[in-house]
UniProtKB/TrEMBL annotation:
GO molecular-function term, one example from the UniProt record: imidazolonepropionase activity
Binding site residues for 4-imidazolone-5-propanoate: R67, Y130, H163, Q231, T308
Native source species: Halodurantibacterium flavum
Protein name: Imidazolonepropionase
Keywords on record: Cytoplasm, Histidine metabolism, Hydrolase, Iron, Metal-binding, Zinc
InterPro entries in UniProt: Amidohydro_3 (IPR013108), HutI (IPR005920), Metal-dep_hydrolase_composite (IPR011059), Metal_Hydrolase (IPR032466)
Enzyme class: hydrolase
Phylogenetic placement of the source organism: Bacteria, Pseudomonadati, Pseudomonadota, Alphaproteobacteria, Rhodobacterales
Subcellular location per the Swiss-Prot or TrEMBL entry: Cytoplasm
Residues the record lists as binding N-formimidoyl-L-glutamate: Y130, N305, G307
Database matches in Gene3D superfamilies: Metal-dependent hydrolases, Urease, subunit C, domain 1
Keyword Metal-binding among UniProt keywords: yes
Major place of residence: cytoplasm
Protein purpose: Catalyzes the hydrolytic cleavage of the carbon-nitrogen bond in imidazolone-5-propanoate to yield N-formimidoyl-L-glutamate. It is the third step in the universal histidine degradation pathway.
Pathway(s) served: Amino-acid degradation; L-histidine degradation into L-glutamate; N-formimidoyl-L-glutamate from L-histidine: step 3/3
Length: 391
């Protein structure tokens, strides 16, 4: 089994004067000082900052087509909801995805994945949600699974068929949930395509009543749930997610203090998505102070998608978490590492530097985390380590 010893590192979060990390077989064995060198390949970090590798816990990375035209419409004054109601938005991406093969989806998605990896990311969550038919939703997750065979990365999938109502189901949301979201979930789960079930709870998407049977089926299949909640309005998604013991509730611009208390009691992560907030020029901020006070773990993610957050930078996401949401540097770093891993149910697998966890690490040409968060458009990654190997 390969043994590697990283020496002379500034190990973020390590106790005392620890400056070495020993990994074997892809797992962290020990963090400390003067660790045993026998049989180990030695890597001198020369004083660089070592963090857990970032985890991007909320993305719509697999998609096709381009929606820059909607960006221009919004610059002209149209709102996201108006564009969606006129058949654009998510439904424009659906038209593109339905016309593509799995291999085409993979090919379009790889450059986005590569950009995330260039900033040290080890783990990426990828949602369906632009197919909105059983087969097209399954193809999206087949493409997501295929990404993990093309790159050294851990992919976690979410079944997001309940993202929007396709035109052929107009006025028949309940039928859509039963015939596509639930029936498709059964089929996709049988094929091993699903790690979690997600939904979009919003007045332009689905209500908690419509989503309830889907979440019930997720529970019956033993799958964790998460939810896009309170992004554009307060729709009760957070309370609903908390009631279902969700791994996370995501977006949360319109969440309240009461919602924060519910998330805390449920042990759910608040996943904040400053890219979407920025692109939509939102003015209502997620209640970060309430999450902090209630002890809700906050994660940050790119929300990479063709419409509201065409962003593939986890570093920029941290910067936005600080500047737009007033999160501290330690909160931003935990937001893209430990708390992001927790939002995926991976808290004991990745996202922290601790013995027993996967050796997913990032080495940066900086001395301290504030330098990662403060700089814009600069990538100081020196090395990305995935499961103990430089990747
Ligand atoms: O997370 N909020 C819903 N879903 C995506 C946007 C998807 C889209 O516009 O394509 C999001 O922001
Ligand atoms: Fe999203």
């Amino acid at each position: 089994m390969t043994r590697t010893l990283w020496t002379r590192a500034r190990i973020e979060g390590a106790a005392g004067d620890a400056d070495e990390l020993l990994a074997e077989g892809g797992r962290i064995l020990a963090v400390g000082r003067d660790l045993p060198r026998q049989g180990a390949r030695i890597v001198d970090c020369d004083g660089r900052l070592m963090t857990a590798a970032p985890v991007d816990c909320h993305t719509h990375l697999v998609f096709g087509g381009d929606r820059a035209g909607e960006f221009e419409q919004r610059l002209d004054g149209a709102t996201y909801e108006e564009i969606a109601q006129a058949g654009g938005g998510i439904r424009a991406s659906v038209r593109a995805v339905r016309s593509m093969t799995v291999e085409e989806l993979v090919a379009e998605s790889l450059p986005r994945l590569d950009h995330l990896l260039s900033e040290g990311v080890s783990t990426v969550e990828v949602k369906s949600g632009y197919g909105l038919s059983v087969e097209a939703e399954m193809n999206m997750l087949r493409a997501a699974r295929a990404l993990a065979t093309r790159r050294k990365v851990r992919i976690r999938t979410s079944w997001l068929a309940a993202h929007a109502l396709p035109p052929e189901y107009a006025g028949r949301a309940t039928d859509y949930i039963r015939e596509v979201a639930i029936a498709g979930l059964d089929a996709a789960h049988a094929e091993g395509l699903v790690d979690a079930v997600d939904g979009f709870c919003e007045r332009i998407a689905f209500s908690t009543e419509e989503l309830a049977p889907l979440f019930d089926r997720a529970r019956a299949l033993g799958l964790p749930v998460r939810l896009h909640a309170e992004q554009l309005s307060h729709s009760g998604g957070t309370a609903f997610a908390a009631r279902h013991g969700a791994l996370s509730a995501d977006h949360l611009e319109h969440a309240t203090e009461a919602d924060a208390a519910l998330l805390a009691a449920a042990g759910s992560v608040a996943v904040l998505l400053p890219g979407a907030f920025y692109m939509l020029r939102e003015t209502v901020r997620p209640p970060v102070a309430a999450f902090r006070a209630a002890g809700v773990p906050m994660a940050l993610a790119t929300d990479c998608n063709p419409g509201t957050s065409p962003m593939t930078s986890i570093l920029m996401t941290m910067n936005m978490g600080a500047t737009l949401f007033r999160m501290t540097v330690p909160e931003c770093l935990a937001g893209v590492t430990a708390h992001a891993a927790r939002a995926l149910g991976l808290a004991t697998e990745t996202g922290r530097i601790a013995p027993g966890l996967s050796a997913d690490l990032a080495l940066w040409d900086v001395e301290r985390p504030a330098q990662l968060v403060a700089r814009i458009g600069f990538n100081p990654l020196h090395a990305r380590i995935f499961q103990g190997e430089t990747a």
